[in-house]
């Protein structure tokens, strides 16, 4: 009752699951070379304006007093520091 089936061994390239294992990384390598080609062929343009300047916007020293709270909040969020004028102020104490 014990019968041994002699099935011929297939070469490694005829196994479908092997191509899934090899094909995934191979596609990624090809895509990375294509991305490198695009990066070399079309470089980013050089930025000519100073950082933070916008066309038509007034310089920072000419900002009106109406914008000062917004400027303080923006600068506080950007630097993480407290403005010097706010350090000396005493917070309102509701117990008084």
| Tally of helical runs | 3
Largest sheet entry: none
| Contiguous runs where pLDDT drops below 50 for at least 5 residues | none
Helix content: 40-55%
Strand percentage lies at: under 5%
Q: How many strand units?
A: 0
Which secondary-structure class do the elements indicate?
mainly alpha
What is the H/E string?
HHH
Question: Could you say which overall geometry the principal axes of the C-alpha atoms support?
Answer: elongated
**Span between termini:** 100 Å
Radius of gyration using CA atoms only:
33 Å
Mean pLDDT: 74
Structure description:
It contains three helices and no strands. It is an all-alpha fold. The protein is elongated. The relative contact order is 0.04.
In a few lines, what is going on in this structure?
This protein has 96 residues and is mainly α.
Annotate the secondary structure layout.
Blueprint: H1 16-41, H2 68-79, H3 84-87
